[in-house]
Amino acid sequence: MKQGTIKEGTIKQGIIKEPFGSCRAFRFCLCMMLCLGIAANVIFAGGSRDAKQGGPGDTNTAKTTSIAVFIPGVMSGSPIYEMLAQGVRRAAMEKSGVEVTVIEGGFNQAEWEPRITTLAASGLYDLIVSSNPSIPAIAAAISVKFPEQRFLLLDGELLGNPRIYSMRYNQREQAYLAGHIAALVVLERAAATGNRLLPRVGLVAGQEYPAMNGVILPGYLEGAKAVDSRFTVDFRVVGNWFDAGKGAELAADMIRNGAGVILCIAGGANEGVVQAAAEAGAKVVWFDTNGYGVRPGTVVGSSVVYQDKAAYEKTKLFLDGQLPFGQADVAGIAAGYVDFVEDDPDYRVSVSAAIREKQGAVIARIRSGSLNLGE
Question: What is the crossing angle of helices 217-227 and 171-193, to 10°?
């Protein structure tokens, strides 16, 4: 069977550029110009699109399956979204007649719903893939208007909609491990310097949202308290996902108030948090991707999600007609979708053997199931 190939194009000022002779490009361009004129980056996998026939897994070689990957932000500087697109592309390349379009939605969250609505209204996509805790509610509203549109949503949760499959990462495990190592580092630094540091860690978030307030923040505190029950969390919010200056300002104030280690989950504003920590001699814990290389010696912990693996495996299930729409899964360390990076050389250099041993023991307990943090 001939595998898919990658073709590239761009959307600029509402006009999509595809290989000449594509009537689909004209129809999509017209729809986009009439509805929103979305500015985006587009990448295609597969050949020309023929009339829709059957569904994923159909043996009719004339059938082209079209998948839209909606990025709720931008790809550049967002490894988690780069992994999303990479995973979908990889699955598409392994099956003939699959076309993938990657669309950047920008940072304005108010624009996400109308932009995804435009994709659904076009009728051009067999599947829309995205990743963000806010997307399931948006997709649910859109599915009422366009009941034939199907969605694959990662890093979010919605149960029972027959057109939506969702998988949420166990962020309680992630946050617990982040809080655990942050507290270990604070106590070790206090003992080494002889300072009576406050048992306090920090968390800088881009915005408040249900998973942040209800899962990540309490999980982070839970992990810190597992080291010492006196720990508290200084929680600050940037208000967006890009203001590095505000991130630096918040982090500097937190450090002055006794937070020696800060977990940052603030997108582009993370740069400011790391810079402020480096200047003050404080430390940072990273979330979702391997961040040790961002500032070696300053980043002392990194919990990760393997979004490329999830996007690849779930897209393959869709293409084989086996994705369980209506289901909402939660995946963590034991399932291989969440982890803490222990084998990075910068981790070994920046963190003492004593802390690495204690952190490794907790990770092993979660992986084996002897420490069950639930969802």
Answer: 40
